[in-house]
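Lecture notes, unit on protein representations.

Consider one protein chain, 711 amino acids long.
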Amino acid sequence: MRVYELAKQLGVSSKSLVAFIREKVGIEIKSHMSSLSEEQIRQIEEKLPSKSKEEEKAKEKEERKGVTKKRKQSKKEINEEEKRQGEHKEAEKFSADSKESTKVKVEEKQVESKKVEDEGPVQEEIGEIREVEVEFPVSVRELADAIGVKVNDILFKALSHKLMININSTLDKELADEIASWYGVILKEPLSIDEKIRLKHEEWAKQNPKPRHAVVTLMGHVDHGKTSLLDYIRKSNITDKEYGGITQHIGAYVVQTPHGKLTFLDTPGHEAFTAMRARGANVTDVVILVVAADDGVMPQTIEAINHAKAAGVPIVVAINKIDKPGVDVDRVKRQLMEHGLMPEEWGGKTVMVPVSAKTGQGIDELLEMVILESELLELKTNYDKPGHGVVLEAQVHPFKGVLATLLVESGRLKVGDAIIVGDTYGKIKSIVNDRGQRIKELLPSEAGEVLGIEEAPQAGDRFFVVSSEKEAKKIAEEKNLRKKRQDRVTRSVNLENFFEQFQKEEEKVLRLILKADVQGTLEAIKSSIERLSNDEVRVEVIHSGVGEIIHSDALLAEASRAIIIGFNVGINSRAKKYIEEKKIDVRVYKIIYELLDQIKAALEGMLEPIVRDVWIGTAEVRQVFKLSKAGTIAGCYVKKGKIVRSAKGKLLRNGQEVWVGDIASLKRFKDDVREVAEGYECGIALKNFSQLMVGDIIECYQEERILRRLK
């Protein structure tokens, strides 16, 4: 018997029984799908508490509660009296402290006043630290208004700090932060209205959470039976006895199975799945990977696995077409193992169910396994607050206008609600469910086609219910204004800017999508690339396949910030258009060593280089001039080599290094020069150093950065 079957018999959840078996019984099991022997079941039943014992424990608990309550009541009066006495003493102490504090403050004020008379204006004492929101850059006037002080006060203090600013000066973040610190203020950039709404809805979703059912997407290779499986599941819907009643296709539908409710997304496959993820929308809770038992693992099967893994979504495998003669289910399982999916019955974690979309065999068990997987995810959200969710698809109808399919993730979406959705807004005029019925509201994990949005949003755009249509319009206008003000930053990455893109990340990873003309070459290239990784930087092939570079490759590259590498393959027209639009880096090679050399060079660019000082020349300080405008100048004689203005310098005094930095200026007589050769005199100014002495030695050098090589 499997664990989940025993859980059903005992009337408990699979998750709680798994925990009980591991902790109380001491049997090591992997999950709810693990099998139990008769002896193990007997051990579990022996450890289960009897009802009588439970009743006795509950009775004792109630009795203890009663005694505790009486004790609390008897002590209540004493506690209240002690509290009153304590408060009286605290009041007396506070009064005495206040008098003493006032006396001290008066004395301090007198001393401070005397100090002002003697020394002039001083910086006022900083009180409690507070935060103020400011958009950068900010003018002095705007900053003064924001932190609640007079403009003249800021200008006066700026003089004492040697800052030359006026009322209309524009301050960058660094300078504005410095000025704000004089008043005990910390500046921070405000959140956009859109971000504030998102945070508010996320907070609402955590309040009074209740279980929601899972959202499921079917993925797999073409002709492996995804559509047939979906059709059979729709027919088996126990609330829809007549299949012909489903007249409205909205890209999502709810199925009430004997084991629980599920929402299925009827998408074109992993392309739409990844397009939504590229916009930050992870709408799927569980993926059903459909693999035909006669064909086995195919290129799109591998793509689907990689897309699901990249999204971090659990996978349940449906091995379809088992009704065909001579199929080998174990062969399919072995193939899936090669791509990181180990069947549970072979010691892994992936549930694999043999099914037939033609006869219906195994489909009930498949749905039950999906329900169990979703139970382990503990999907919960709020049902009562204003709703938020994601756009599944949208179109412009010639007569009705914009129609959008929305999936609710939390809260409720009702007819009459005002929403902000992506960069547009609207007021919900009607909602139609998957059976073509007009309904008044959608609950979490439910989807419907809505009418009332001003402009067509994109798949993956998020929507949020707001208080009114007026507010929704205002937010949409603000978002569009911000977009116009801000420069668009391209998220794409290429081999040349790889270092810049990833230098701030803790782990330096070059992500690749690899396509080749034949399987043997593909495996050889993939193996060679992966061997280039080391402890500091690594290369990760997130997807590989045989054939031309297609649209789904480009989508995955954009979503995962990856580079596409092709060997002896072309790029189809649809993919080429998307690649150009998103500026995705694609490299196609015909010689393997050129491919490997470029990947190796990109990774070597990520390794911290060896820095070496290369000596250029030495000069001796023979005179020191202190000039009012130019600062301190050293009159020098170049003893060896040459002095170069763009180089770095070291100051040595009695053989000890005193200063290291940049050479600020280099002169021959009154002229600025780039370099001075050996045997000539020159004037040298050092950056941020003026304590020069006759006899000091200035060494001129350049830093040489030596690129490290991969072993």
